[in-house]
Specification:
Elements (H helix, E strand, L loop, with lengths): L4 E5 L15 E9 L6 H4 L2 E3 L5 E3 L2 E4 L3 E9 H11 L6 H17 L1 H4 L15 E5 L1
Length: about 130
């Protein structure tokens, strides 16, 4: 399994959590090179339960040299998604992307994500490389 690069919105001070997290959106883009095939569970669109229905991922763009999967969710939607996709029973391709996102968001929003458990036995060497972006 090759590793994607994960571009994720930089958590700047003006975007910090202010107690109401339903409207704050965080964008993450998983980029797979032409030599790395996107795992089927990652490319499959799913609808999760919540106040607002949303699809996973929000956009898929396949090109000649790379495939991009764009995730654009509110903190509430990220919380719901990460509670499901980081567990030991989740497919490795999902954990490869979602565990690094969870760890990143735990640093920026510990009061929202600190209780989310994840598969601590999943090899950190397989985590997608995170690159914060503005």
């Amino acid at each position: 399994m090759g590793k994607p690069v994960l571009l994720i919105q930089e958590l700047s001070e003006e975007k910090q959590y202010s107690g109401e997290f339903n409207n704050l959106e965080i964008i993450a883009i998983a980029v797979y090179g032409k030599d790395v095939q996107v795992p089927l569970p990652v490319a499959t669109q799913r609808v999760f339960d919540g106040e607002t229905k949303f699809k996973f991922p929000t956009e898929i763009t396949a090109g000649a040299t790379k495939t991009r999967l764009i995730y654009r969710y509110t903190l509430a939607q990220w919380l719901e998604l990460l509670e499901i996709t980081t567990l030991p029973g989740s497919p490795a391709g999902l954990k490869q992307i979602m565990i690094p996102v969870l760890l990143y968001l735990k640093k920026g929003y510990p009061d929202v994500f600190s209780d989310v458990e994840y598969d601590v036995n999943f090899d950190p060497g397989q985590y997608a490389e995170i690159i914060p972006m503005r």
